[in-house]
Design a protein that fits this description.
Elements lengths: L10 H12 L4 E4 L2 E4 L9 E8 L16 E7 L5 H11 L5 E6 L2 H16 L4 E6 L20 H13 L4 H13 L1 E9 L17 E4 L10 E4 L3 H13 L13 E8 L5 H17 L3 E2 L3 E3 L8 E9 L2 H7 L3 E3 L2 E3 L27 H33 L6 H21 L4 H16 L1 H18 L7 H19 L9 H16 L4 H18 L23 H14 L9
Parallel strand pairs: 3-4, 3-5, 5-6, 10-11, 10-12
Antiparallel strand pairs: 1-2, 2-4, 7-8, 7-13, 8-9, 10-13, 14-15
Length: about 575
């Protein structure tokens, strides 16, 4: 288990601080993550990578000359927020544009895509390459839906070397896409991982058994088998990967390939070397030309006992870029010429906040009621954080509870601060939404940020919120969720609870009911709908590959929405309350 921590909710921030303190000659802290401590060529492309914490050396350990220029580092097992990605990209930018690259997970896609749009709007040309190397997470016909695991090292190394060689942005993106298309990975696990502060692992594997095709966030595997010998495991890994050759690689014989044997946290280097001996022998038997193999930890999952094998199939261009020098905290090859350190004054800082919008007296008087509602949200999440994590861990990564806790607490603090500064009700919601998205990260963080901002924009600061404005704001929030998350009713997401909530609230308000009665009715409908998701199979997100495992368990996002709707209902004035 993970034994050494202080406050579990501060774990990611504290690990970044320690990482930077230990590597000041290579990385510097910037808002949202880390960037190179050394200067880059003016006008060159900057590679910005990122994802959730808990996977070291992914992602901060791969920042350095010849590799990434910056890493956006989210909370534990949660994607970085849009603002984190934007902040790191600004700090890393050299004037030649930015390439964003990350593992293909729903929260990362939401936040990195939003960051790409924002950076392009700011005049910083930005492209994206998602890593999709895990062959167990989707069939070959749906490669774009696959998740990224240890193969991200191959993609990041190629993109970083191309940027260092002076490639233009589109060319860096091209060669990174080529590297991704030629990278395949497959992993196994013997035990689950335990998040800081948790008393139980996210998942367990029966004694004497091995899970096949696991994910780096603790997603359950797609099958089990008896624990093999080291040589038996080597056979499984090689057989799986040679069974799916990339386009352009007609036969393994005579083809150059980089094998990357990755330990997931608890499997020791000695064990990995024993396994690699079997891998090397089998690759030789297949006639493969092994180039610069890597054995070690490259993308971990806390204390998970397991390993993955990546095969990165080279062509002449990729071979040259793979062999190019690199000097990052966790990956070094060749000789890198000394570089000047970036001065502290060049570190990009985020602004302290926008100027407070003017508000009417009625809107300012309503602001404390908004704060009360958001405080109730934070309180109900605190009370159910372990339950939400448990539900999420059934077919996901188990971080929903702690992510919602971080987000709701940040939203409550931001709402109080805005109210004390004289904000109106709409601005309070806008500030709360920004804080939720930025602090929580992940899919739920991004979506709750969207919802609160949509509601705040509709309510505004000119008038006190009335039932119609609130109902319309909730419908705007639903539209935002559908636009960003792409989910619909039946996909087993929080949309299954939000849609009936919004429909009921809108109908009741339109019929003349006061907000308290209408909201209570809508909350009841949402609670029923959330419970009914237990009978659905997920069709989106990390839970999709393990759909059958979630039968009988409600969706964590739908359940948390129902809890929140009910908690907010308790803060609304009763009919006999003045």
């Amino acid at each position: 288990m993970t034994r050494l921590f202080n406050d579990p909710t501060a774990f990611a921030d504290e690990l970044v601080a320690g990482f930077v303190a230990a590597n000041r000659d290579r990385v510097r802290a910037v808002p949202g993550g880390v960037a190179r401590a050394t200067a880059s060529e003016p006008g060159s492309v900057a590679l910005v990578i990122g994802g959730g914490s808990g996977h070291y050396p992914a992602f901060g350990g791969l920042v350095g000359v010849g590799l990434a220029h910056g890493a956006a580092m989210g909370n534990v097992f949660a994607s970085p927020s849009t603002q984190q990605v934007v902040s790191v990209a600004r700090a890393a930018s050299n004037g030649g544009g930015v390439l964003l690259s990350y593992g293909n997970y729903a929260g990362d896609v939401l936040n990195f895509d939003a960051a790409e749009a924002q950076l392009n709007a700011e005049g910083i040309p930005t492209r994206t390459v998602r890593v999709t190397d895990d062959i167990s997470s989707a069939p070959a016909s749906e490669r774009r839906r696959r998740r990224g695991i240890a193969g991200d090292l191959a993609v990041f190394k190629i993109a970083g070397a191309a940027a260092e060689a002076g490639y233009e942005l589109d060319e860096v993106a091209r060669v990174a896409e080529l590297a991704n298309e030629r990278t395949r990975s497959f992993g196994v696990a013997f035990t689950g991982c335990t998040l800081p502060g948790a008393s139980e692992p996210l998942f367990t594997v029966p004694a004497g058994r091995m899970a096949l095709g696991l994910g780096i966030h603790g997603e359950p595997g797609i099958g089990e088998t008896d624990v093999p010998t080291a040589d038996g495991l080597a056979g499984i890994l090689v057989e799986q990967l040679l069974g799916e050759l990339p386009d352009g690689v007609d036969s393994a014989a005579g083809r150059p390939v980089v094998p990357i044997l990755n330990g997931l946290g608890s499997v020791k280097y000695e064990e990995l070397f024993v396994v690699y001996a079997g891998i090397a022998r089998r690759l030789a038997e297949a006639g493969v030309e092994v180039v610069a193999p890597e054995v070690g930890e490259f993308c971990t999952s806390f204390d998970m006992a397991g390993a993955s094998l990546t095969l990165f199939w080279l062509d002449d261009e990729l071979a040259e870029l793979w062999s190019a020098p690199a000097d990052a905290p966790a990956f070094r090859t060749g000789a890198v010429a000394p570089r000047e350190l970036v001065s502290v004054g060049e570190t990009v800082e985020t602004s302290s906040g926008a100027v407070m919008a003017p508000a009417s007296e009625e809107s300012r008087e309503a602001a404390p009621h908004v704060v009360q509602a958001i405080d109730a949200i934070a309180a109900v999440i605190d009370a159910h954080v372990e339950e939400l994590g448990r539900i999420d861990a059934v077919a996901g990564d188990g971080d929903h509870g702690i992510g919602m806790q971080r987000g709701s607490r940040a939203a409550a603090a931001a709402a109080r601060a805005a109210t004390e500064a004289g904000a109106g009700a709409g601005t309070v919601l806008l500030r709360a939404g920004d804080a939720w998205a930025d602090r929580a990260g992940g899919t739920s963080g991004a979506l709750w940020g969207v919802m609160l901002r949509a509601l705040g924009s509709r309510i505004g600061d000119e008038h006190a919120p009335d039932p119609t404005a609130v109902a319309e704001g909730c419908r705007d929030a639903l539209a935002g969720i559908r636009s960003h998350g792409k989910a619909e009713v039946g996909d087993k997401t929080m949309v299954d609870a939000i849609v009936p909530f919004v429909d009921t609230l809108t109908e009741r308000v339109a019929a003349g009911e006061d907000l308290t009665r209408a909201w209570n009715a809508a909350a009841g409908v949402a609670t029923t709908a959330a419970a009914a998701t237990a009978e659905l199979l997920p069709r989106m997100g990390r839970a999709r590959p393990h759909a059958e495992k979630s039968l009988g368990t409600p969706d964590a996002g739908a359940h948390s929405f129902a809890l929140i709707a009910t908690a907010v209902a308790a803060t609304l004035p009763r009919k006999d309350t003045p």
